[in-house]
Each structure stands twice: as structure tokens, then as C-alpha cells.
Amino acid sequence: MQNISPEAASEIAAALGPGGVLARDDWGPFLEEWRGRWRGAPSLIAAPASTGEAARLVRLCAARGVAMTPIGGNTGLAGGQMATNGEVLISMHRMNRVRLVDAAGMTMIAEAGVTLAAARDAAEAAGRLFPLSIGSEGSCQIGGVVSTNAGGVNVLRYGNCRDLVLGLEVVLPSGEVWNGLKRLRKDNTGYDLKQLFIGGEGTLGLVAAAALKLFPRPRDKAAAFVSVASPAAAVRLLARAQAASGGGVTSFELMSDAIVSLTLAKIAGTRRPVAQSPWHVLIEFSSGEEDALRPLVERLLADAAEAGEIIDAAIAQNEAQSANFWRIRHSMAEAMRGEGRQAKHDVSVPVADAPAFLDAADAAVARIAPGARVMAFGHLGDGNIHYDILKPEGAKDDALAPVLSAIETAVHDEIARFDGSISAEHGVGLARRDEIARRKAPIEIDMMRRIKAALDPQGIMNPGKML
Amino acid sequence: MQNISPEAASEIAAALGPGGVLARDDWGPFLEEWRGRWRGAPSLIAAPASTGEAARLVRLCAARGVAMTPIGGNTGLAGGQMATNGEVLISMHRMNRVRLVDAAGMTMIAEAGVTLAAARDAAEAAGRLFPLSIGSEGSCQIGGVVSTNAGGVNVLRYGNCRDLVLGLEVVLPSGEVWNGLKRLRKDNTGYDLKQLFIGGEGTLGLVAAAALKLFPRPRDKAAAFVSVASPAAAVRLLARAQAASGGGVTSFELMSDAIVSLTLAKIAGTRRPVAQSPWHVLIEFSSGEEDALRPLVERLLADAAEAGEIIDAAIAQNEAQSANFWRIRHSMAEAMRGEGRQAKHDVSVPVADAPAFLDAADAAVARIAPGARVMAFGHLGDGNIHYDILKPEGAKDDALAPVLSAIETAVHDEIARFDGSISAEHGVGLARRDEIARRKAPIEIDMMRRIKAALDPQGIMNPGKML
Fold this sequence. Notes:
The structure is a homodimer.
Chain A: H1 6-16, H2 28-31, E1 44-46, H3 51-64, E2 68-71, E3 88-91, E4 98-102, E5 107-111, H4 116-125, E6 128-129, H5 142-147, H6 155-158, H7 161-164, E7 165-171, E8 177-180, H8 194-197, E9 206-213, E10 215-216, E11 220-228, H9 231-245, E12 249-256, H10 257-266, E13 279-287, H11 293-306, E14 312-315, H12 319-330, H13 332-336, E15 346-348, H14 354-368, E16 373-379, E17 384-390, H15 404-417, H16 433-439, H17 442-455
Parallel strand pairs in A: 1-3, 2-3
Antiparallel strand pairs in A: 4-5, 5-9, 6-10, 7-8, 7-9, 11-13, 11-14, 12-13, 12-16, 15-17, 16-17
Helix pairs in contact in A: 1-3, 9-11, 14-15
């Protein structure tokens, strides 16, 4: 555990001005990872109110070789935001200005501490869409969303966070500020430096602000809840839906019957929209044209039924029905709470390989933990499956404890076989650091280390995370 | 000028096998930049037939500290592909296999030497679209397209080359091979290393193969040639078209009357599709639905006319008319040939700032070179303007020679004022190296140098280019 001297602490307080350093009484929300997996132990919590203050803070830390950890809304799932080792924790919540919304140019500039919901609201107020949407959007902040390259339910249509960032303002580990806040769609004047900070988990610098892409707001939306016999049928339906709508598929969420049935049983007020079947898909379409989608979706589903790709389907007749479809999907994490120790995986494979991966992983899990219940669901359109294993029905809460590690290894072995990713959207942080060190090719870890050493030679930006 | 020893040359020849080292008689096409701006002087030209051969070649060069320059179709516009200083020139043309087309998963893997046209054909044969489209697509190769982050006419809808790359196989400057050929839509397991090689102009490694995104082929297309009073009116029309089509605008090309009229005068068989006006726009839409676009485009243009945004418009009634529209746009570079020494710029600004930039740049050019003819055209949808200055009508071919540098400085000064890019799609290479060193913030050049030193410590991969 690192500690900073009282002199350094008071110098930081002076550099930041009132409110710049948090009193111990206010530390609570910053110490606990929200699921209780890690506990932070910072030596100081600073909250700069501007990029200038953030730069002064980092410069002071750099001069003393003091390590820093940036934190946004503390909603990360990999522990990257935790100051577990006496780092100076830098909370970005006071840097919460939307600096610009350019409706005509379809861009906005938001500071790191703007919540994702506030960024979406600012775009909407200007008649535009900022499409990134994840469960934690009320609390998570732009800086964290950028630093973890957040995904979510609209990736199929609009891409990951990486695809939505045009430019960044970054406080480098030296305390120097890189103004890379360009709002250009094209710029080929050297290495695309911002890409290193996107998904960089705060290990190369402190993201202070981001220039983001906006889109026209869709004028029509349509959602359908569909029964299919297998993941393979779902992949065929995806291809059909993409072709028929010309890329108008916004979300394509696969859900096994096990997780749908568990959710319906656990979450009050939900009801099954279609006939029970081994697998379900929630599809959402969007279009720039009013009233364009209804006939398209009806024709698509009729064609799919005729081709034997689907068993049953319900098209949402109104907002309330669509909300019910999404409530089922969004309640799955909640439905699994109280099911004891679980093996959770956030994996991806090439979309067409998802069915074969699921078969292979299911077989491996059945071998290791007979009777364990596989809950598979997620963004099939991106090849991203949340593959969670629950204890056998009626077993004790810690029934899986002895085999958790064997299950994880087996599932990730299958991912390796399909050249997939063991962290599709949640990142590395503390949770997957050792695992990626084992699984990535040494040459790749070596390149990552070289880049880290090149941009953070003192190793003071979020040390111990990712690498 | 560097030279390699006869021993090294024969070792390379042995490592590559028959055809791996080009005889002097076959060097011709590799020595001359296609517009004659630079001339190469390699010490040897190698053409590996596989990634394994390429790795052996690079390892041999690395062991001796011999510099290398990769070359694809030799269509680059910035000189990055020229071995101007005795480098070993590595031509990728023998690595021309399409390794995989996964129609269901919407991906393909192509080796560096596959021409862009061949890659597009392979996708089309599988019922899919690889959307990257640039003038040189018959000759340019995937490796070069990736290394220069090529843009083109479909960026508005599908993004730059960067947005189309899922993974890369790269021979690193040490000769080690990084297999980053993932075909995943989501992977958050560390720094996104491929981004450094995309647009890296061969300065960090040799791109050997790329995993690329495919898309459904559009089932309907529509093109319109429109007269507008000003670039500002064109920007409003763009916003209207994007909103009405829900992102269905594939191309949005702005053209001044000066360049349209010059093209019509110079290129046989072209004719003006609409009433003459100060500015024109060529818009192309695409859709996944058959027969969806015609009514949409008609309504859009009627609404735009009513709002006073457009003066006249012609919708292509068939493929031939659409081809005539595009022929005008694609013949502009040819039309300017034979107009003597020119000041050419490939710049971008935030889309909404394009009108103000054009006003300011026109005023600056008029001050420096009264009577010079401004030819402004390009991908307004991306904020990317090709801004070319021709000598005054009737003046001598070298009339602009004394002021070329002053014009470039003035145009790029205006770009700096709008926080734009002085090389939107063509890259840096030799052409803009000194200019970016002057114009970029020192901190940015410093970061680029650190990354270069981290991944190519000997400085042997395409030295003297970009940095």
C-alpha cells in the first residue's frame, strides 16, 4: 500500500481549490465495487473540476511518482476503477459539462464526468441520437464508457463506444494535456492515438473529455419476440433480418428458455410473449422513415416462418408491449441474483460460430458440473454471449464453488478454439488480468507492455490493471 | 542511400524461394510514383509468397539493421510506398489469396496483396458487400488500403477502412508474426493494437492479411444530381437526407460549378444533368428493401425544394443515368490534368464548418493568386474537401509556381482555424511529413515517436515516412 505525504496532500488540495479533495466522510461510494468483489483503499480522493485542475493534479502526482486510478460512475464490472493499492483516486464527477452539441454536424463534446444518460438527453434535446445504451447508463460516465469501450444493446447498428468517438482530450501520465478533441470524420495525419485510450482502462492517461458522433433520431421502431428451435436458426434469422432491413436491425438478443423461464418466474409482472421454445430472440429494428417498419417486419417474419426458421413470433403492438419484451431481457441479471455462487462469462465468437460454441461449452459444463443450469443470453448480433452457470436446482448456494475455476477454464478453452474473446465488453481490469496474461500470445502482451512503457514510463497510471 | 551486401541478398533469395526476389528487369513498375512525384531507389525488391516467407525476409533484414518499405498497388498519393533511400522494397502482390469468406458471419479474410476489386468481387460472389470503394480499386491492394486507412465514396454510410477491419496479421519489425486475425465484433481484452497498423503507413510493421467486415448487399439504390445555391444549402440538404433515410445516404458529394463545368468541357460524352448553379451535389442512397427508395427520394427532394434548399434536381431513371452522374464526379481529377502546376489539398473540417472554411479559403486564395481558379469538390458528408487551385484561365502552365507554397500555407492555416485535418484520406508519407511536424502539437508528435520507438526500436520499418 502506497501513501502520500501530508505535504503532497496539502499541495494537491491547494492546486485543486475548494471541493477538489474529498473529506474521508465522503469516501464511502468510491471504496466498494458495486457487487462487493473488490474494495478500494485510496490514499486520497481528488475530484478536479476542470481539465486544467486535472492536469495540475496529475503533474503533482507524477513529480512524486504517486500512482493514480481514475474512476467514473463506479459501475465497471472488471474492477478497473478500484484504487486497491493506495493510489490517488481521481473521480471525474465534477467535470460534468456538455461543452458542445453540434446538431448540424452531428457531433457533441462531453466531459468525462457527464453521465451517459445526460449525454443521451443532451443529444435528444438537439433532435439527435447518441446511441450507446447500457444497463448502467444512469450512473456510468463518459470517461468510463470511453475507457472501457462500452458495448450494450445497440452495437449491431451503431458500433461499440470506439466507433462513436471522434476525438479525445487526455491528461497524459506526465500531466501534459493532449488536445485530441477533433470532430472530424476523416483524419489521416499519423497514428490514431485516441484508439489507445479508448478501452485503455485508464492505464495510459486520464480521459478528460470526448468528441462523440451523433445520429438522426429514428422515426420508427419495431420490436419482435420470437421463438426459435436453436441458436443456428437464430443466426439464419439474423442474416435474413439484416438483409431485409438493409442494416436496420438495432438489437438482436438471443435468450435460452432457461433464462427466460427463470426471469418470468422471478420478476413480478413479466409474462411470456410467445409460445415456449428452446430459444428466443428479441429483435429491434429502427428506421428513419415513419411507419416504414411494420409491413417490413411482418413480411420478414412470415418469410422466416415459411422457411422453418421460427416457431412463433409476437410483434409489439405498442410501446407498452415493447417495454415488456425489453423488461424480460433487462431483468435477467436481477433474476439470477440469489442463485448462489455462479460462473459468469462475457465472451464473443464470430457470429456464425456462436451455435457451435454453445454446444461445445454446454457439453463441457455438463461434464464438470452435472445438473448445473446454463443461462445463455446476450447480443448474438455481435457474437457476444453472456454465458452464466447456476448451481443445480435445489443445491446449496456454494455448490459450484469447488468447480468454478474448472468451469471458467473449460469455457475459455472453447472460446480459444473459436478464436474468440474472453472479455467481449466488460474489459480486463483486475478480473481478467491474469487470465489474459495466460491466454494472449506472448507477442501481444509484449506489444501492450511496450506501449504502456512508452506512454507511462513511470508506470503510475492505474498500475496493476489490465497488464 | 543504403545498400545490402551480396551475401544478404542471396540469403534473402534463398529464404524466399523462386520468384521471391525480383530481377532488375522487373523493377520498373515499382520505381516510379504514378504521378511522377517521387522516384524509388531500392537496394532489392522482394515479393514473399506467404506470411512465413515475409517473416523470414523481415527477420533477415532486422538482423542486419536493413530498412524496409512495403508496397501494394503503388497507387498511394503521399509517397509512403516509395523506397527512396535504398530500402528493401517488399511487394505484397504474391500474397493474393482470399483465405475465407464467411457469408453468414459477414466477414472475410484477405491477404495483403489481394486487390480491392478482387476483395469486393469475392464478397459479391458470396452475396455480400465489401463497401470500400476508391478510384484506384482495380490496382490498390488490401495491405495498402489498410495501411493508409483509405476512405472513398462510401465512408458516410460504412466508415473508413479503419471501421471495416476486424483483425490483422502483421509481421512486426523483428520478423515475429502477430496473429491478430480475429473476426469478432467485440473484444475488450487490452489495447486495440490493430488500430496502430491501420493508417500506420507501414512504419510499425508489415500488414500480411486482414479480417474485414462484410454487409448485406443493398437491394435498391438511387442517385440524384442536385443544384444548390451554396455549400450551406448542401449541408442542410445532407441533414434532411440523413434524417429522412435513417442513415441510408451512401454518398454525398459536393462539386462547385467550376469543376463541373471544366469536367463537362474536357471529358467527352458527359452532359449536364441539371440546371447550372453555383454548386452541385451528387447523392446516392441505398436500402435493403426493393423499390423502397424512389418514393423516399422524390418526397425528400420535393420537401427540400419547398424549403428553398435546392434549385433543381434530377433523379437517375436507370443505371445508365446513374453512371453518367458518377462519371462526372469520377472524371474530375482527369479533367484537371493538363492545367499546369496546381496546389492540391485533401482537407477535412467538421461537416457543419465546411461552408465557412470554403469562404475563408477562397478569400485567401484570391488574395495570393488573383484570377486563380478554385476547384472544390469531395465528400461533404464526411467534411472532406478536395480543394485544388488551377492557374488563371489562359495563364502559363507554371503561373502558380511562385505562390504554390503560399497557397498551401494559407489553406492549411484556415484548416487549423477550424481544427480540421490537412490530410483527410491520402495520408502523410513523404508528401506531408514536414507539414505535420510543423502543425501538430509537439505532444502529439512526441507520442507518435514514442510508439514508433516502442514497436520499431531499430527504426527499420519504412523510415522517413510519416515521422
